[in-house]
Every structure is written in structure tokens, then in C-alpha cells.
User: Fold these one by one.
Assistant:
Number 1:
Amino acid sequence: MDAAGRPYLTDFGLAKDTRDTHLTPTAEVMGTLNYMSPEQVRALRRNVDHRTDVYSLGVVLYEMLTGAVPFEAETSKQLQDKILSKPPAPVRRLNDRVPRDLATIVHCAIEKDPGRRYASAEKFASDLGCFLSHRAISAFPPGLVLRLRDRVQQHRVAVVIIALIVIAAATGMVVEDLHNDAELRTEVRGNMERALELVDQDDAGDRIRGALQAAEAAERSSGLDEADRGLRDELARRFNARRSILDQEAMAAVLGAIIGKSRTTLDPQFGQTQPVRRAFDNVARAAGYAGRLSEDVGRELARLATVGIVLTIESDATAPIRVLVQSLDPVSGAVSPAHVVLRQHAAGTDAKFRLVPGYYRITVVQSGIGFSELVRSLKPNREDVSLVARIVPEAILTMRPIAAGRFPVTTRVNRGDTSGTIPMTVTVDLPAYYIDPRPVTNAEWEAFATATDARLPKHWPFLPKPADWGERPVTWIMFNEARAFAEYHGKRLPTRAEWEFAARGKDAWKFPWGDAADDRLDAFNLGRERYPAANMPKDQIRPRFDWYVNNVVAAGRTPPVSQGPNQLHDLVGNVLEWCDTPTWDRHGEVLLIDLESRFRMGLYCGSTKAHARENGLQWPSRAGVPYPQLTTGFRCARSEAPPPEGR
């Protein structure tokens, strides 16, 4: 048990507390000999530390790759001598299918000298992770100098005798340079031949680079013959050609992710848009093959990896600002623990930070004053993304409080074949929040447009307007415009789960009052003319104005018996309402999220009463973010409190 109370399980027969010098005073050898490090074999207790475990783990990996342990002998004494003085057979000599980088990792782990071994199991694991993800490892294969030194250590007596002869004769007697070892030259040639066969395989980069490096070392030490130089040049030419192709593909994928189409999907397994994931896959493939990242690709990748945020905070107070960020899962509705990106930020100055592309809720908190919430799907962008957070302390004064709870959100998704759709339910845990009692009205939108120069809906210029025009729900508003309204007033748009939970209650009723389609349904504006009306010209605005005037009614007039327990108006009929939840569907076994589309909840006035009785509020509709909808309005929401800081 350590000081923090964390328990550790170990084999107590071989356990050692490095701080205690009183245990095991004798120099006995303990452990399974084949897996013991040289320092264990010597039984020098003062030199045995955690690196001996790195060695033993390296032996296990060596055995997994080759089918044999590094050293075997008939007697324990012979085995100890080999562990102490003999080099292990190269992994790739026993199994030439083992990648060069992986073999290098193994040999680094089983170095005889602990100082040349991995300094910790963490560094050992890190290099294995780099190998698996096709990134450069930190370990290097032993160079010619180290190999020569090892040979000298193996043959100390012979080397001393040769040295004495050389010194005594002083006649320039030539001692054959160990660098010209025929075995090494044969190995260099064989490696190049095998690498040439694999040059077009993306996972062969480490072997090709190793073969070229070995050939260069052999050229410097003893020279290559003409055939070997030709082989080396051909391998280098084809390697560079393949590397150039992979760099071009990586660059195209990265640029496509940055400046590609606005309509993208999110793969929830990886938390990335599909173009981003493809870009990272292409970059990893190119870097793994070449052993390095192209400077040009790296420059563009930096833009893809993170998005710059410039956050302007509007508040009448001067208290310091704190900014928290949470990742959102559109499918499950789960929200990650809050990560603080800025603490004690000075009011009145722009806040700047960077986030990786993804789907986020950003909460701006001003101590003792209030907070604001911004929800964004961040895509790779060459320019910084500008956001504005307005802290409005009185934002919740007219809103309805909704207690925390759980709600089952059901969506019809593709069955996976051609036989239609099936319901898929995800249960969402909802913290407490507030929601508007009715949709935003024309009068409220007009005041917002006057204050901010926001766009007025296309059908507004026409006359005559009815007397209750200002009380009717504003429609023909794009999703981003509705979100801008909410944020201007210190609020946000509700998620689909929040809208449904407020409207249908914890028991997921079909209607605000229960599952019965009784006479309370008659209080809602249903059964009007459908939209678009028959023969309505696509390019004319006046018919749409007339449809709105004749079918949409003033908001906030639902009788109390039909409002449900949360006292909400206009949940059934009148207009649909935007929710800030991206739509998603199933394609085969993969769930794909459309970041440029949102769910709409409710039933609009053109829905028949028969349809309303059968379906209630159970099923959403979908609409693209860039497209205003004459049948769609919105209401606002806000969390009850800022999220607690995560660990």
C-alpha cells in the first residue's frame, strides 16, 4: 500500500522494498533463471532495481516472438554464464517476420547493462504504443561501435593477446577489422533484398529504413561492391517514390478535412468527424512508412489537430471569469466531466484557448454573478473561431424549473437492411435545468433583431398583419439564428432529451398529461392546412405569409389542464421546435451523427388529430441546420447551475 492508499499486488517471494536495506542480507539467487536479469544472476542486491522487471518482461516478449528464450543451456552454471557474457540471438534471425522496430524494442528491454535498458516499464510500454500506432520509437538498434564493444567483451583474452602482438611488432601488422565481418555484409544484402520485395507495403517502412541505414553504415566502414550499391540505390529510389505518394495522399486528406464540405458526420467511436478520422489515418500511414512527418503535412496537421477559440465575454460586472469545457455525446446524451481551460480570467478581455475538433458545451462562469452556456460542434478551421458569451443574471426569471431525472430517448433508425426502421432507445441522465414556458414570439424576435441587426424572416414584410402577430411563435428561423437568440439572452437551446423530459415527464408519456388521447388534445392547434399547401409555388413568399397567418396561432394560451405538470404551453400543435441535438442514424453496424442537422420536437398545426392521437410527442422530425423552416420555432433552456470541475 502506498502513501495515497493505492494497493499493489505482487509475488511476495520476489518482492523488494527499495527503501529497506535490512532484508535478505545474503547474496542468494532467487527467481526463474531463464527470465532473470544479469544483475539478478550476479546476486548483487544493491544493483537490482525495477529495471530487472523490464528485463524479465523483455524476455517474455522475446519468447512470444521467437518461440525461444534468449539463453538456454544444459546446466544452471552454463546458463548463468550465457546470461552474463553472451549476446542473445537477434530476434529477426530467429523470425524474420518480426518488424525491425519491434525487434529493437525487445533488445533494448533485455540489454545486459541496466543503463542501456528502458529506464522504466512506462517507457517500455510507451515504445510499444508508438510501434502499434506507427510512430517513431525512442530505442535505437545497437550501432557498429556497440556491437564491436560487445565482441571485445566476449573475447577479452584474444583481444589482449592481439593488442600485445601489435604493440610489440609495431610494424603495421594488419588486424582484420571486425566491421568487415562477412556475416554482417551478408545480412545487409539480405535485408535490402527483402525490403525491396516489400517496398510497396505501407507497414514495411521500418524494415526498409533499417536496411538503408545498415547499407550506409556498411558503405562508410568497409565499402559496398557495385552490385550492393545498385541494390541500395534502387531500394532508396522506390522507397522515396512510395513515401512521396503517401505524403501527397496525407496532405489531400488533411486539406479535405479542413476545407471540405460543410455537411459531415461524426463517428461516435472515435469522437471525430469522418474526414478528420480519414486524415489522421492517412497521416499515420505516411509517417509510419517514412519514419517522420512531412514538414508541409505537419504544418497543415497542426491546424487540423486543434481549433483556436477567441471568446468575447459580455457582462456588466467586473468579477473574474472561469471557462469550463465538456465533451458531449450526441447519441447517449452523456456529458463529460468539466475541464477548466481558463481560471481567474480578467473580465473585459477576450479569452483565448484551443480545443481539438469535437462536440462541446462551453460554460462561462462569473463568480457571484451568473453563467452562460455555448454549444458548438468544432470542425477543423484555418482561422480562429469567434464566440460571444453574454452573462444575463435575470435570464431564468420567467423560465420553468425542471428537476434532475432520467429519460429514455427513442429514435427510429435504419434496420441495417432494406426492411425499414426499428426503434432504438438510449437512457439519458439529466441534471436540473430551466426551460421557457412557451416558444419565442415575433415580438421578442423583433426586439432581438433591432438590438443585434439579426435577419427578419422572409414573410414579415407582407401586410396586413393580424392583431396578435407579436404573440405568435416566430418561425422561418435557421437553427444557428435560434441559437444566437438564446445565447444573447444568456440561455441556450434545449437538447432533445431536455425538451422531451419537460414535455412528457419522467414516465415518458405520449402527452404532457399522460398516455390517454382524451378531450385535452382538443385544446391544441391541430388539423390545419398542411404545409407546404397544395400547388404552393416554391419561389413565392406571399403564399407562405398567408399560410402562416391562417394556421399559426398566438403562443402561451394552452389551458392549464393540457399544460402538464411543468406548466408548458404549445407542446402539441402550432409549430415544431428546434433542439440542439444532432441527428443520427445507423448504417450497418455503425452509428453516424450528422453535425449539420438537428432534431425538431413537437407536432405542428398541420398534423392531423388522428396522427397526434397515435403518436403523441414520441417521434421527432429532422431538418438541416442551414435551412429556415416556416413550420419551426424554438424555446430556450439553461442549466440550473454550472458543472462541477472534473478531476
Number 2:
Amino acid sequence: MERFIETGASEAAFQILEILQYYLDISLLDKSPSQSEIMKYGNLQKETPLIIFFQKQQNYQNILMAIQNLQRDYDILGLKLTESSLLQRQIDQFSLLQIEEEKQLVSIPRENQIQEFSKEDQDLIDIYGDRIKFVEWYFENNDVIQRQALQRQKQKEYMRANINQIHQILPKNFKFFNEVGYQCLSPEQSKLIENVYQEYLTKGGLQETFIQSGDDIYSIRFQQELYQKNQGWRIVNSISQIGRELFRKIKLKGPFQKQKTVRFYLINPLNNNVLEEITDLAIIQNLKKAYETVQIKNKEKTQVLQFRGEKVILYLNPQALHDIKLLRLDGTGIYTLLPKTSSTKWDYVATFKPTARLSIQSGQIYCKELLQSTSLEYQFVQQKFISTFHDNRIRQQSSLNNQINAAQLKPNILRIEKIYNCVIYERFVNEYKRMLRKYTNLQPSQILKHLFHGTKETQPQLIYESETGLDIRFSRKGLYGEGVYFADNSAYSNTYCSKTTCNESQMFLALVLVGDSVYQPQNQSIRIPPLKPISRTDRYDSINNGQGGHYIIYDNLKSYPGYLITYKSY
């Protein structure tokens, strides 16, 4: 305590001093805390170790960084600070002391050990069932995070003591839960632990398994008595008997995609307070492009751009992406920007869920929505369409068939319309649910694909206005018989596009349930997929032509005409 007082070092030191005083009063002097102290610091059991008490504080990360700063600047641990060569030794010693203490502790159970889902996620589970749940197991490894923070201090790089910035320097297999760092076990290890955990839930008693990491063997034991004793599940080193908290997290894997959005905020570098959000679209576009480039290439980047009516130099360091600098050319100052990333989930299937006004009873079963070019769905369809329009496989086929060489065409998307049809949607979703239940060995992305389809002489509105959609009854005999044909590239479907009265080209990007698909050689007599081996009734769901990227279905249940693309080729 004397060392804290001697520093006279800002508010952080006195906050730490207050917490220490409270801890000593309760744990050593048996004083009774006041109600205001309990509300401020929380309940404290006498046997609670100091590091755990610190971790329970709402501003734990600020406390930790403050201690590290005080150690560096004022030698609060009593280690002599002289030559720069000793600085690393001090920091390493402090880190090791903390790591070893953490390893010996029995940690406090997290409130979200029993995971609750958001309404958005629960809606997805209600639609697709438990099949889309994916379990990951994590173990507490907070010392790695602290080492990273200390490493950044050692390199004298500025880092604010904020949990959001620490997130950005973590390895991909690390996550924060309740401001404590956890490392994800491998998929194989997670699956093994989950199987034993489910056995414990079913049978009770003691269920145990072992995993290996390097030369170490770890045991995981599930038993009600152990859970109550340790206040949570533990992963224990079989040699040292050091245990760490084990954390179970359920993620959803299904027909959806996450959209990450980055926003940039101007901050006051003196106190880290946000001054304002950057809203200028031109500046945001330049910042996003530079930010993403540095993330991908992992190299520093400088760029001159306009900011607030003047030219500034943008500087991005891949090791400090939380700290973006804009340097004024006249040398009079620096702007500091803070990027914040958020993500939203886009469901490939539920996005077509019709509104209440569409119903077979009302007689209005369909409607269209014109997508905005800035929307995620528009960009998703656009990318698939443009990137596959010059497919090499189709150039070869086109030259053989004396058709227009796709390489000479430049597509220009005029509009993308999203199709809602309550009858086709209900039938399609039910078929998808059936497949998810049936094919537990297949990922949802293997069962459902986005594929292109050209309707040739049939006008698209006759398809999306109907109750059957892409109807097998109107199909013509092709190289694989009488089926509905789809391609994974727009180049092929362009040769089968329909035309509007304005000579515009149109094709669908459809959702197709290829399910368990099988390669077959060309055969114009095919009317139904072949039987599976050793079965007299179970058939494959679709046929494909291998590397050609074509899929053929033979019923009306397995496709949804999701997006109508209108374009011109020049």
C-alpha cells in the first residue's frame, strides 16, 4: 500500500488502493462491509483469492492495465528499475506471478454456463430444429491475453485499456466471456467432450474423458458433486493437477451468413472519449477499403485522403488496428479514429418468409421487392452473378456449340428483384427441414445451394406467380432426362436466359435442395434419381455432372425462385 501512496499516480492508483483496502478489511480484519461497499465491490468471501476478487470487478481490465503501468513507471512490486534490459524481466516476472496464481485457483461459475438464445437465434432453431446447433468447448486461458497486452507495452505501443481493443489482437481461437479470456479446443476435442457431456446428462453419475495437448494429458470429469464443489466444470492437467474452468458455448450453423459492419469514431486521445461518429460516405469508403486491405495483407498502409476539408495522411498498422491515425499535412496535429465492428446474421431461407398479407386464402400468394444496391442480399447476388459470368467451362462449351463466347460479353445488372411466394416457401422449408433431420452427416451448406436457372421461352412471372414455382411438368428432355436444370455459374444460364419486351435478359438465382447428390453420366432417359446402394426405396435427391457444376432435380419440392436478375450483356 505504501508503494501505491508514494506514487501519487493518478486516479487509477487510488481506485486500486480502495479495492485492496476493502479486500484486507474483510479477509484479514473481519470487518463487516457496508451496503454501499457491497453494491460497489460485490460480496466477498474470506477465502476468495485476491486475483479472483479483482477479476470480479466491473473495471477489471482497467485495473490490470493500471497495475502494469504502475509497475513499469513506479516499480510497485519492489523490483529495481534501472537499465532497459531489466524492464522485460520485471514484466515477465509480474506476468508469471499472475499466471501461476490464476492456474491454482478454482474460478467462479459464469452465469451463461446454461446458454440462452436471442429471439433471432431461437426463431432459427424453431425453423430448422436442433440440427443447426454446433457446440464448442473453451478453457480459461486469460494469461495469454495478459501476455499479449504486456508485449504491446514492452514495444511501447499505445493501447487503451478497453476490452474491445484487446479483442482485436487475440488469436482467432480465443474469445472473451464476462471479460475473461478463453481458448477454444479443437473441433475433435470439443466433439469428444460434448459426447461425454451428453452421456452425463442422460445417465448421470461420473462420466470422464481425456484429451492430449502436446506432451500433456488432461482429464475432464462430469459429476454433479464435482460441479458443486468447483462451482463449474474443470479441465485438469493429469500430472500437475492444475485445473482451469471449462466453458460450453453453442453456435448456430445453418443457411445464414454474417455481415460485418465497421464504423469509425473520432476520439479524444487524452481520455479515449468518443467525440463523434464519422458519417461522410466518401471517407467511410476509403477507411473501410484501407482497413480491410491491412487486415488481409497484414502490412502497414499510408494513404492521402480528404478529411474535414483538408488533406491528411492515413496511417494503419496491422498490429494496432484499434488505433487509426490521420496526420495533418501542416504538422499541427493528429486525428485518432477508433473502428468498431458489429455483425448481423442473414438467413438465406427465412429472408423469404412472406408477410401476413400473403396467403392462399386471400388469393394473393406472391409479391416482389426491388433490392437496393447497398443491401447485403443485392451484393451477395451481384457477386455470384458477375464472378461466374466468364466461366472457362462455358467458353469451351460455347465454342463447341457455335454460341456466343461468354468472354466477349460484359454484363450490366439493371435490377435484382426478391420473390416472395407463401405457397412455394412453405413447401420448400418443410422439405429442407426433412433433409436436415435425415442427413446429419451433411452440413446445411452441402444440402442447400444457390444456383442459376434460365427459363428460355417461359416468362419468369409465370413461375413466381404460380403455386408450383419451377415445375417439373413443363421441363423438356435434356442430357439428363426430364428434370429442372441448374448451374453454379451465370455464364451457362445466360445461354438459356429469357428476354423482356425491352430486350433485357433475365435469369433466376434459385435456392436448390441438392441434398445427397450423385454424379451420373449423360442419359436422356432419366426421369428420377437412382436408388442408393443396398436400398430398394431410398433414392438420391439430385443428379450432378461433376466438375461441370450442373445439378438436376426431378420434383417440385426442392427449389425456390428466390431472386430475379435483370441485366444486359454488351
Number 3:
Amino acid sequence: METELSPEDIEPWIREIGPKPHGMGFPTKEVLDRVIDAASNLLFIENIDDLLDELAKTLREIFPIKSMIIWISENDGDLNIRKPKIILGFTDEEKSKLQTISYTGMEIDRAREFANKIGRLSYFVPAELYTRLGPYDERDLCFGIDEKSASTPRKAPDMWHPLDHVNISFVSQGGEYIGSIEIEEPSDGKIPSLESIKAIEIFASLASVAIEQAELNEKEQAITEAAEKRSARISRILSFVREMLAIKNPERMMNNILTILSDLFGFKAASIILFDERENCFKYIALMGYSQEEVNISKSLRLPKDSMRFDISPDYLVAHDAYFIPGEKLPDEWLRYEIQTSDGIDRLYKLREQPRAHPRAWHPLDNLIYLFRDRKGRILGMMYPDNPSDGLIPSPETIESIGIYASLVSIAMENTKNYMETLGAKEEIELLNRLLFIDVRNQNAIMRRYLEMSIAEGIDKDRQKKYLKNTLNQMENIVDLIQKVRRLSSIRSRDKSSLLRVDLINSLNNQIPISISRYPKKKVKIEHGAMPDNCYIFANDLIGDMFDHLISNSIEHNPREEVEIWFSIEPMHDEFTNRDFWIFSIKDNGTGIPDDRKKDLLDITSQISRLGEKTGLGLSIVSALVHLYGGSISIDDRIAGDHTKGTVIKIILPAA
């Protein structure tokens, strides 16, 4: 109930109502002996529920109590809440109502200010007090307290009124309130004597020790069970991960990761995003528990690295490499990267406004995020468990266990990535051998045809000279092809352990005149802006080849009378990975590259599939070197939307 009265406003005669001594004011020896014996027996009961049952039963045996409630204090977040644990002497309907109510520690303290203090731990609330307090809330109605019942007069000064109650507190050894005995109705219809109240106080004091001990036992048991559960869960995680390590197919592995997550931790849905080095963005790789429409839309999304900075803000860190973002706090610009349907972002706006059922309830837009890292600490991707089967935000223990699982998954993912890279290198070598065999065979057939034509009877010298020149061109093509295949094989056979700290600008300046000198008939104009100092990367002796292929590509395929090439090198800091990079760009005024050919030029397999055409492996070699150096490469139009005005190739390399 709420009131604007102060305790001083309560009339003195109301303060006089309550238990009175019926003798010397102290319990008899017989009563004390029964109380101490009964309370001592409580110390041997370990289960808190059994203890409270026995406590209530003992009270009713020793004292004339018809109905009573035993309250126990519990911590709910920052609040201390008093809840009913034992309810005796009420109808089933009354009991079901009483089981739903609770009081905060502040409400209890406020109520005591108005109650009549009748002992060290005891308070008496007379029915007459309710005529001065109000209005009555729903909890009061559960006890039958309303204006009519509160105004019913007491039959006699020592008689119990239906709205009277006595409250005797349980207090911890540290002096904190841990619960109470609340007498709702004595069996003899009279207000208990002061001697009885003091005897119950003694019983409550001794019972407090038993309650504290039982609660401690319960906590220890819960900790032990949690530890056993955690150990069993980790054992299952290790077992699953061992099986996962044997999976070499990436797609199957990703789906398996989510299936195991669901089996172990009870999530109905989940997703994985991984960083794509070629596209320089994050992409949804695997989804579980979503509609096909949601899967299709999600897999079409490209998530910029900047979009992930909000997900891994320190403000939302809940465990190592684990983050929890409440759905209500997702900003507008991040909603577009959420899993969605064709209804679009409007549906997500509505979901965000949906209230959370209670503080521990899972919200439809809650984000629980786990990072996948490689052995060097670089972020490979993220896992998003979603829609827990119990509808609750996972406990700290569960969040920690999922973190262990995610860490082990990271190892399995890196192993699979290394396996696929090794397999890919092997397949590329096989393709290169196939290219070498088929292309050389084709070139030889053409040369043979030209030679046969050059020695045919009656051929004039001009035509003979032409056929021989064509034969020499074919021989040069074969030599060029063999050199490029050897170079690609050489790159694939090397690893990053051979990389050294190299000056990017010096390497470029050394290569420019060498590359231009091979095209004496071409007029080449080189321009560049201000170059930064200390421009170092990790590379090897093949870095000159990287620049050579870029420059040669711009000159050789440019039909214009004057070839113009622009270079630039700029620093870049990636806040997402907290790493520094150099952005190297080369632009030209050539005829450009159509959109459908841009990606193919960086892919060896696509180049090899164009057998019969002139093999443009130069940019494939550049791409292979860039990835060896830990960078990324992209091809765009020099003038956006018009590929005929030239090309810009951008390479991002980690700074050394």
C-alpha cells in the first residue's frame, strides 16, 4: 500500500494495541526447552525446502497458530525481494494468489516504520492501522484487506482481528534480514502473549542459523552441479570438435558448427559470417533455423568491415571475445545488416520497438556475438547464436562455455582453411600443367602449319617472310607462357615465412624503367603524387614481378598513341583490426576491362578455362603475389561506370 502519512501521524491508542505479558514477561522453562530442542533439530536438515516445512510444522505444534506465512529474502539483480515460501492455513484459491506476491526490501523497511515494535525481531501490525493507511494495492487484496474489512471493529482488546498480523524476522549472522515468520491467525482467536512472542523470537534466532546453513549448502551444491555440468559440456564440446577437425569440406563444416551449437546449447537459430579477403567485406556463410527467404537475402548481403565495429564495442563485452547487444539498442544504420525478409527494414523497426517480456527474456533483435580468430589474433569471422529454446538470455556460465566452443571452432576453421589452400595450390599446379600441355600443343600445331606454308612450292618471299615471322611470334608466346607458369608455380611453392621487410616505393621506382624499356615503340608517361616516407611491407624478391606485370599490362593492352599511367600510395588504418596498411593504386588511360572480365583476370582457373585465347596470366600472378603478401586486390573503372576510359587496380598491403 502507499501512504502520505508519517509514523508520527498514527494515534497513540493504536500504538498501545498488541501483545501483553501474561505473567513475568518471559517464556517458561518448559517452552524454552521445547523451542531450543526443536530449533537444534533444524540444524541437521540440509535441504532448504525441507527445513522450512519442518520449521512451520514445529511452530504450529508449540504455539497456537492457525495460519501463517514464512517469507524468504532473495536477490533479484540489484533488488532484495521477499517472497512467500511456506503458506499454511489458507484455502487453495487464497494460497495461489499469495504465491504471486512479493515485497522489496525498501517496502519492508517502510512498513516497519508504521508497525508496533514488540520485541528485538518482532513487529505487530494491528487492523486499526489500516484505517489510517491507503490506498490498498492488489497485494493487500490477497490478504482480504479493503476499506470494509479494515473498518470492522475489534471484538475485545485482547482478541485477534482478521487483519492483524505479527512478523518475526530471521536475521543473518551479519545482521541482515533474510526472511520472516508472519502469523496471520492464532488458533485460539487471541492476540499472542508477549511471552509467546519472545519464545518465537528465540526460535527464529536459532532457525536463522539453520536457514543460513541450508542456503549455503544449497549454493555449494549448485556450484558443484554447475561445475559438473560445465565439465560434461566441455567434454562434449571437445568430442564434437574432434569430429569437426576431420571435416575438410568448408560448407559442410560450417553447417556442422551450427548444428552442434544447437545440440549443445539449445539455440533454435544461428548464423556465421566470415571475412572475404577478395571482396574486403564480411559475408553470411551459413545459417540455421531461418526461412529460405531469410537465408537467400542474408547470403546476398555484403557487410563492410566498419559495420562490425558496433558489434564488438567494448560497451557490450560480456566475456572474452563475446559480445551481447540488446535488440532495443541497435541503431538504424545497423538494422540493414540484420537477417531479414522481403518486408525489409520496416519489419525490423517494429521488432525493435517490441518490449522485452522481462529483464532476462530474449528479444527478437538481441545479438549474441562470438569472434573467430586465427593463431595471430586476426578476426576470421563471427558466430551469432539466436533464439534460445528457453526464451532467456543465456547465463554467464553458458556464455563462457559457448566462448570455449567458439575458440575451438576457430582452430578447426583455420585448419580447414589451410587444408583448402593446400588443396587449391595442388589443383592450380595440376591446372597449370594442363594449361602448359594443351596450350603448348596448340601453339606447336600453329607453328607447324606456318612452317609448312612457308616451304610450300611456288610461295613468294614476302609471304614466306610473313609465315616465318608468325612462327617466331608463336615461339615467343610459348616461351612467355612457360615463364609465367614457372613463376606461378614458384609463388605457390613459397610461404609467408620467407617474407622480409621491403621498401615499397624503392621497389616500384627500380622496376618502372625496366618495364618501360621493353616497349621502345610506345610513348609512356608516368605520373604520381607525393609519396609517403617509410613505406614498408613484408614481401620477397618477386615484388618486382608484381609491379612489372601491372605496368606491362597497362602498356601492352593500350592502343592509344600515348600511354598514361598514374601511381599513388596512401596509408590506411583499419580500426576494426587495429592494423596499418598501404593502398597502392595504378591507373591507366587504356580501353579498360568489361565488368564480366574483371574477376576472371585475377583467377587462374578462369584464365585457364579460356584455352585457345591468348593466356593473360599476368594479373593472376599479381593476385597470387598480393595474397602471399597478406593483401587484397580489386579492379575498377578509372571513371566509374565507363570501363572504356581506363582501369584502376587497387592493392591493399599490410604495413611492416
Number 4:
Amino acid sequence: AVDTVDLVPSDGIVVRAVAAAADGRTVAVDLDIAAEAALGERRVIARSGGTAIPSATTDGNRFYLAGELPRIDSISPIQLNPGQTADLTIRGVRFSATSEVRIERPDGSDGGVEIELPIEIAPDRIQARVQVASDAPAGLRRVRVVTAAGASSDVLTPANTLTVVTDELTEIPLVATRALSVFKPGPAGTPIETAAYGPILGVARGAVVSDVQPRLLETGRVTRLQVTGRGLDAVTEVTIAPAVGLAISAPVIAEDRIEVDVAVAADAELGIRAFEVAGPDGVLPTARADLAAIAVVAPVPMLEGVDPEYLLPGAPARQVTLVGRNFQQATAVRVLPQNDLVIGAFVVSGDGSRITLPISAGAAATLGPRTVVVETPAGATSSEPAVGNRLYIGDPQARSVNALVGPILGVQRAASPPVAAIPAIAQAPLLGVNRPFQTIVQTDRLGFAQPIGVARGPILFGVEPAIVVPGFEGDLILPGAEVLAGTTIAFEDGVGISIIRPAQVEQDAEGRRFVRVGIAVDPAAPAQSHRIRAENPPSQLDVAVEIPFADAQSGRLSVAGEQPIIQSISPVLALSGQQVVLRIRGLNLATATAVRLVPETGIAVGSAPTVSADGSELSVALDIDPLAEPGARLVQVVGPGGVSSEVADASNTLTIVRP
């Protein structure tokens, strides 16, 4: 029998009592829900004696915590003709979780008015394109908004009534005038409560700052700020706090604006700083709260090279290095298009000149060039294909090279005796040459070459497998060159890892050397990465010398955590051509390395998911191609512990629709 019930997430909800029915078919649960509890989907875990009882369906153990019912305050237009297409605006409250908009007859039957997807949804407004059927009969139509909490009122009122009329409609332009009251003779009707809407109005007394441009200060540059507003002629000072790394000139005052030059040191600390304009009576108020802050950012990033330039389809992930400038605040790395690519978490060098990240291409990846883009708060590198931002999918050795056509080449053998020239006239038919006119444009470009590393003595190229699970017992293979017999292997901070068979140096069929070592991983080993330390034997060298790896990342062994689980995503609907931030909630997300969509054609996924401190939520940027095919996409989270569920349900499905 069920004795306990847990909710995930449980924030804002307390389970008070659990009572199982005598027949074992139902369980009654009393909940205490806080007024500020977050709305959204919750998962129910029923336990008997501490053991979780599985759900018969993927969504059978989920419920939605919803707020109050939506309310419609007005619609516009209120009349349409048969065959007409128009933009319908619905105003009201509690529209954020809208899942459907209905236009129906008073009896609930189809009203002959079709709503075209997508619809634009805001908390207090819905914008939709509607098409009235050419044979739609005249009469009233009821407009209703449906959310997770339920549907808006089904009672016909002036606020939710659309009328289909056969009379020709005349558009009356808006007239700006004073308030006007209209009285219509007739019997008194029933009062109707409704809300009045108007633009946000701010009232300021005295001097005020209405705008500041630009809002970003780049390090290593002098930026001229322009402050506009009213009553600025008495301004005495412009300050930015903290001012460390900044040099601010005296303000130059005009009638309605102030100009001030701000020099930002190259090593100035990045981030948000307070911005104030002061006068004789103190700090001037701002028309918006965000005008009281200004950001110091790194300069716009510049991508100058990609190494290596080639990825083999179906091969293991390779460490790719991006060379350039101003990468310090990089937020994402994208490869366009990203079809059949898996991009891992990236690491930025201290001077911001390099980004290193693992990238792999699926076996079915389309061969050819891709464009790499680096994004920062200050902007993104160019998405236009150019020298320095190309990554090729394919085998560089199989790359075809076009034949070079040159003039006829004569070869003179030095040993041949000289031949006396015989003057003569050669006769031949007329020869026509068609030489098309070409405009030669000279373009200055930077030339790049791949960096070459030279190793002297023993070296290791990596470890296979690079990721193991708790409880793993087996051999690790470390391929290398000039590795000596007696080489030792150890793990720095190797908590939970034991060496059960000492390292042995062996050779493969082609004579290449590698190190084999047996290890056992404790079932309770924490999920983390361990540095591998390999040393030459002291008996063959004067002292034990550490053997380097070809690159730092290849010399690490990772212990995987638990498989990631997706509980919900937001949004669940996105438009072709849109850029959105996908938020994923679930379990075991702290070690996530990538997010992928299936199918992923037409969608570029950001390479650096942002994970919350408790590992329950991650965010990733999506760039949806305008030509992306509409339909459902399965969202999966990839981590050392595996990949989230391959079964699509309401918690892990993103639907793409066309505008």
C-alpha cells in the first residue's frame, strides 16, 4: 500500500496526509499549496515501504499547478465579414500559459472562423491571425482562451463576442480628441465590469534622465556616452561606480543632452556598474530603472582560425581549438549548420585568445564546410563563411583537388646538341580565341597555418575509454610513442579508483606502442574528472620523468554520474527563424555536457548549457532556421552518465511551427 507521496519539484507545496483506498486502486493526498508557489508541471512519486511505484504511462504521474482562470476584457475587431482575414487582438489577464484560443458559436459548435498558427502570447494580450470561411453564416461567435487552469468564461458578453456580419464594413480612422461620452437612448442595460487600458505614463518633476546611449563600454577603448532628458543644463557630474579602471571626462552640456567620454582600461573588471547623473539638488531620477546601470564588456570577439580544420564522420570527439581575440566573456560556440554534430562544453584561455572544446560528427553527417561562430555579451563573430571560421566534415586525405591548367611547358635536355634555327613561315588555319572579360578584385586576407607540436621522447595521445561508470572494472588503453617498458600510471585525486593490474607497455600489429593498465572504480565513486600521471621508469633514466600528453584534456579520465532525466521544458512551442533560450528542468543535470534535438535538421544548439547551482535546471540557446521543417523535436540531455530518455512525451518535446 502507498504510504508516502513525494512531489518533484516540491517548492511551495507540502504533502499533509496520504490515505490509500481499501481496494488499493486510489490514493487521496492532501496538499498545502503556498500562494507564491511557482506554476508549472509537477511529478508525483508514490512509494510503498520506501520503494517507488512506477507509472503505467509516461505522463500518468504528472499534474499541472495552475493559477486562476484567464479573463477576457476586450477583443478587436468585434465584427468581420465572411471570407475576411484579419489580425485579432484579445486583451485580458492570465494569458501566459495559453494553450488554445477558441472561436465558437454560442452552442459550442464550430464557428467557421479559423485561427492561423502561430499566435503571439503575452500575459495580458494575445495576437492571432484569423480567417472567416466564405460560407460562414452571420451571427455571434464566442471567443475563449484556454490555459492549464481552464478556459475563460463561456457567457457571451461584449468583451468576448465577435460578430460575423454580411454588411460591408467601413474602416474609420482613429481620431485624437478629448474624452467623449456617447449616450444611446433606450432602456437601461445591465452594468458590465471591464478594464481600461492605456500606455504606461511616467510623471517626473524637475530634471530627469530619459535615455543613455550606448549602454555598453568596451575595455581598451574610449566611448562617448550621450545622455538625453530634461533639465540637464544644471548637471554638475556624471559618475560610474565603481570607477576602478575608468577615466570619465567632464560633461559637455547642450540643451537637452549631455556628452561625456569614458576611457576604459584594457584590464578593467567586466560587469555591471552603477550610473548616475548629479545636479545641485542631488542625483537625477531616470525614466526607467535600467538606465541607472551600465555594463563594461570585452571588445567584440574575432575568430581567426580553427584547428583542426577537419572532423571525420563517425570518429570519436576531437579537441578543437578556436584562435582569435576577445573570447574572455564567451557565452556560446555554434557551428552552422549543426546537423549531426555534438558540441561539448568549452574552456577559454586566460588571455581570451583561445577556446578549446570537443566536437564530434555523426556517421551520417553531411560532408562539406561548416561555419563556426563565437558569441559574447559584446556581440558575435561573423556567421558569413570566411578564412579562419571554417570547419570541414570529411577526410582531408580524400579531399579532391582541381587540376591546374598552365601554359605549354618545354623541356630542354642539357646533353642534346644545339639545333640550328631555320627561319620559315608556318601556315595554319585562322584561330579564334574567346577570352571572357574578368574583373579581378584584390582582397586582403589574413593567412593562417595550423600550429605544429613537436615532442621529443615519450608521449601519450589519450586514454580509451575516456569515461567510465561507477563499478567499472577493466583495462585502460593509452596509445603513445617511444613509451618505455616499466612505465607507471597513477591518478591525481583518484578518489574511488584503484589500479588492479600494473601498467604494461605493448605493441599493436603495426608496431605502435601503447600502455595497458587495469583499474576498478568503486560503485560509490563521485562523478568527477581525474588527471592521469604517467612516468618513465627510474631504472632506465636517471630520474623518473613525467610523460606528457599530446594535449591537457586528453590526459583525463572521467567517472560518469547518473543518467540525466528531463521533467519539463519551456517553451514547448517555437517559430521557424526564431532564436530562443530553451530551459530544461529535471534531475542529474549538473554534469550535462550538451543538449541535442532529434531530428536536429534546421536547428543549431548552443555549445555551452548553463546549469543551475543545484543541477535541477539548465538553459541553452537555440537558433532555428527560417526553413526548418515544422513538427515535433525530441529534446535530450547528454552527460557522462548517458543520455536522457529516447521516448518522446510532453516533458521533452519541442514543437516547431511556421509563422
